[in-house]
Amino acid sequence: MATASLPSLYPSRPRALHAALWIAQLGLAAIFGMAGVMKLATPIAQLAPKLTWTADVPETMVRFIGSFEVAGAIALIVPAATRIRPHLTPVAATGIVILMAFATMFHVSRGELAPLPMTITLGAVAAFVAWGRTMKAPIDPIAG
Questions:
Q1: What is the pTM of this model?
Q2: What total of structural domains would you count in the chain?
Q3: Residue 44 is part of which domain span?
Q4: Do 99 and 67 touch, CB atoms closer than 8 A?
């Protein structure tokens, strides 16, 4: 007597992981895109009341961080969405992990504890994207 094959216990697991990774990528891209544009386009005098550290570092550093954030936001989405060099998406996520690690250390050195939950959470989400898009659910490049 032939037995019917049992359905997978987790039939939607890869699909769910891809969806979770896309949600994480889009969320990170939105946050870092907006934060980066703000750091690039807003005069330091207007930034300082909201981001007090911006008054204590050179303006070029604030602008550099903003450009890094915008580039990271773009790289989290475009390579994966176009499937052109999708390996750059986990590279971008890894860059954001590094940025958040430095941000965490910077704020700790200044005795600023309020930003830590945000920097640690964003770093963890970016680490999830880097891990997921590298190990568990990479996006295949366009064949050609």
A1: 0.89
A2: 1
A3: 15-136
A4: no
